[in-house]
Amino acid sequence: MKLATFKIKETERTTVGAYLDNTYIDLAELSGDYLPVSMLEFLKLGDSAMERAKRLVEKTEKSLEAKPVNELSSASGNRYAYQEDEIELLAPVPLPGKIIHTACNFDAHLDELTTWDDAEWESHNWKDFHFEHPTGFLQAGSSVCPHNTGVAIPKFTKQLDFEIEIGIVIGKEAFEVSTEDAMDYVAGYTIFNDLSARDIQAREHSNKVILMGKSFKNSCPLGPLLLTPDELSDPHNLEMKLRLNGEVRQDSNTSAMHYKTAELVSWWSLMGLYPGDVITSGSPPGVIAGMENPVWLKPGDVIEATVAELGTLTTHVV
Question: How far is CA 204 from CA 99, 170, 281, 288, in A?
């Protein structure tokens, strides 16, 4: 399934839905409110919610063949199907409990970070980065924003950068799970754009910490949809392209991930994972910080992060 969180413009109702044939389906309304309007609550219901949602989507496929979208109504007589211009798409998980950012999980990205000529950045000793296990840091769930958000450059940075990543969304509570069982805990995948204040990040790294360089208002665009694992041919063979104003800047494939999904979920489960938590894949090379003469993001820039089968996550710099 292709799951979404969206707001219905006419009623201002926010709900969990499914995307089907250019139509957004209000799963809560269609289920007679058995399914919740919050993605976190939906995921907490586990397999029962997923199975109910799948049955409803299958039923709606047949209904869409028989009636126009605006004529489809639930048992209570309310509409449950909407066209794109009738809804406002939100992040699939608008406020995750935590975002676990996997650092330097593409070897070529680590290589490019060693080339940036900045004293504070170099003090982090990037060339000594090692891979006994995944490493990373936490990002604030409140930093999440949806597809097509206009992101203002924070007043504290002059070096705003991008990073295309995959967001792995957890579907049920996990603690100390094995790599063999880890995929059972994955609800689905989405696109993540890790907007980074490189000057602040460098300063924080020089003090052996990281926070504001990666967690500020709207620094974590997420979306546009959440695809369940059965929708993907292979999560570890997906083309990843990030375009800045139409120019390809990052071009890679999830096959280049140093640690794959099962390894990441297994390792990070040692801290305890909960429905709606997001684990990022890490970024491939091509970021601004890796350029010989960096030209940082500025108002008017448009970032399009595209991952095969997952779609395109667009962010506007304002």
Answer: 19, 29, 22, 18
What is the number of other CB atoms lying within 10 angstroms of the CB of residue 212? 17
CATH class, 2-90 region:
mainly beta
Pull the structure tokens for residue 55: 């049955």
Fold of 99-317: Fumarylacetoacetate hydrolase; domain 2 (3.90.850)
pTM: 0.94
Q: Is the dihedral of CA 176, 181, 187, 190 positive or negative?
A: positive
What one-character DSSP code corresponds to residue 73? B
Number of helices (H) and strands (E), helices first, in the chain?
Answer: 7, 19
Q: Which of 38, 32, 35 is nearest to 13 (CA)?
A: 38
Tokens representing 216 are 């500020």
Whether the link from the prior residue into 92 is cis, omega within 30° of 0, is no
Q: What are the tens digits of pLDDT across the range 24-76?
A: 999 999 999 999 999 999 999 999 999 999 999 999 988 988 888 999 999 88
| Alpha-carbon distances of 240 from 121, 152, 169, 250, rounded to whole Å | 26, 25, 18, 7
Instruction: Provide the residue ranges of all domains of the chain, joining segments of one domain with +.
Output: 2-90, 99-317
